[in-house]
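Quick question about two entries, pasted in order.
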Amino acid sequence: MKALLKYGGLLLALGASACVDVEDQPSKVHDFRVLGISLEKPELMAPTCERTPEALDVLAAEVTYRALLVDPAGEGRPIHYTLWACADTEDSRCSDEANRVMLAEGTATAGELSLAIRPGAATVGEDSLLLERVQETDPYKGLGGIRMPLVLHAVAGDEEVYAQKLMVFWCPVVEGMTENVQPVIPGVLLDDAPWAEDALPELSGKGPFVVTSEDVSALEETYVVPGLRLDAVTLTEAWEISWHATFGEFSPQVTGGADLGGQKGKHRTEWEPPEDATEAREVTFWAVVRDGRGGSSWVSRRARWSP
């Protein structure tokens, strides 16, 4: 029976990327951008590594694609989007017409774009599965899972963004492998006080104002991946959170993660308004969490700042 996945090589990192001016601070959200991309499920795992109808059905399942579109100066203008799936992870714009499939297109406004897609069922050429093309172009033949690039092209006025997310397809290569669970920030604190989603706290002065995530250590999964010799390797997630605001800036802009010794960083950051700010305003904040395995989600908060 033909193998569904082949293995060998190196486990690669998973994530999302977007085109942003190199002079921008990522935490300063003043123009049109995609702050985060999420898939539910973050990965699909077949019950077997053999090419069976049951395995193909699992890999062809519907998933929900979500993109956080932020356009603070757009005043509700339309955002035109196209979502592509392609075969080459190096093709950041899915420009190879022979190896790409359009999954969705339409018009939206700023906020969360949500689409139901079946990337594992996409076909190219004469009914060839795009998933197979992805595997063929992968020099490591799927040791880190088959990673299919999903590329969102979004245009708002004269601004455009290409944002890539890697959809992960697995099968149980070694004992103990399970599907990734989406990381979710359990709550946010502002100056050590709970910061509810529907709250609008009053902030005054230059700050800094301390923002932290509630403890996520119990939510960081221990998981199993295949090693270079196809042995079981056990790892533990170290979530990273990127912080963004429509006014002022965060320092540090990314919290968490782990150093080379495995020591995890704390999810504590400070927000400050611009030094020359003189007018009160409402500020929107976002925290985008990534688990380092392709899982991602976000929360948003608001506050009223005055000098």
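Here is the second entry:
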Amino acid sequence: MISPIRGLMTGLIDYAGLFPPASLEMNEAVRRYAEYRKGAHAPALGRFIVPAGRLGELRESVLKMAGRESTAAWPLSVIAGDDLEGELAGMVDLEAVTADGGETQWARIAALELRASRPQQVEERLALAGKRLSSLDSIEVYFEIPLDPHPGVFVTAIADSSRSQVSGAGRNAGRSVFAKIRTGGVTTEAFPEPEAILRFLICARDAGVSFKATAGLHHPLRGRYPMTYEEDAEAETMTGFLNLFSTAAAIYAETGTEEEWLALLTEDSADAFTFTSTSIRWRDLDLPAADIVAARHDFARSYGSCSFEEPIAGLRALAMSRKEA
């Protein structure tokens, strides 16, 4: 039986080393991701996140590092901006050079991340991507949506645009169009209120929409942390990734009440958690490994982080301190 920690962490962290606050150079981000793929915590590593406009730069860096030898293809999550038409061109080029094995199969597009500032853009941008990308039906598409004043109209648009790919178990199995929420950043304004996050989680669960999160999730527990790596960086109260994904699992399993979910989402005490061989326990609420695995597979997909080492070290220390004897 899979452990609850492994169920929580498998493929959880999409590596965003190119993005703030880390903002690494391409070669350094590539070097680190390659090391993480071979490291002890590789099961927790998800996709390499890259802007669509930097795919060519990424290709050169990866192939140079690999010596143009055969290597397992890197799963990419490609972020497109406002110039979707132009940025799709780089993705089309990637499809072309890797399609027939003419070049080392160094990468595959596993996900496309887009923004929607109005609900209608979900269908519009999805249709445009479908015209250009032959692989769109085999990748996951995430739409970053605003949490305020209410995400309901965006979640509904995403649910309406979801296309079944394959049959399978789970309420959200086979979905190809998902939501993305921003849980932080490098400015105070980037951090949503916990109530807004909870409102989204419940709304997404009810609509059968899976999601990923991004930013501000370097630490397992909610707390006040520096927003950047600068010595004089301002601090802000951040949601912990354990808070977010435990709450998502509880909501998905319909375990607990809305009041308990908000308390779990905002919990900042390590003493409130206990890690056993079969569950993660928060106060009087028990989350069995099976519920965590189901939520991760069908609902709470992953999150983007510019650090891979910080979340791993933080959860490891917390789990060791709160492990049931």
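Reply: Residues 4-321 form a domain with the TIM Barrel fold (CATH 3.20.20.70). The chain has eleven helices and 13 strands. Hope that helps.
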